[in-house]
């Protein structure tokens, strides 16, 4: 065979080899990785309160120990999902016949939730309490429609901090209220009401005293 015919045949063979190599070379492998589940805002808030780490490698729900208490002061164990749903309901409506209690498997502190009708709408409180000493370690308030510059000031740390460091008193009012130099509500510890917001201040303190007494059966 003449050389002029050999060259095209050799080139054709080389091209076929390249095409076979391309077909046999595997493409990139796609691996579907499950994304870590994002915790709800309520779960994140409660976890921070109780000092639970939100690491993706930790099963957050397994860290909780939750209860409920109803209007008849019956206490029951519940899973964290049911407790969170109750928390969401209270956050949305400010009302519930059953209230959740959040704790941890090993911790000595629990978070209790309370609500009441305020001057402009629902007001809510979250109290972190030491189960052994009954000391109130941390307090946060929230509201729906209290007036800015007046009742809305229940969310300020200057007001919230007055309730911290106090021991719960189940036999009488844990807190009393002093407004404009007058004692509006008698109690173990007097707190100063918000200037210009007597009604919101009174309703907040009444909410706390009434609800703390309901938790007596749980703590004792």
TrEMBL record:
InterPro entries: FMN-bd. Residues 118-215 form the FMN-binding domain. It comes from the Bacteria. Residues 20-42 are annotated as: Disordered. Residues 32-41 have a biased composition (Basic and acidic residues). SMART domains: FMN_bind. This is FMN-binding protein. It comes from [Muricauda] lutisoli. The lineage of its organism: Bacteria, Pseudomonadati, Bacteroidota, Flavobacteriia, Flavobacteriales.
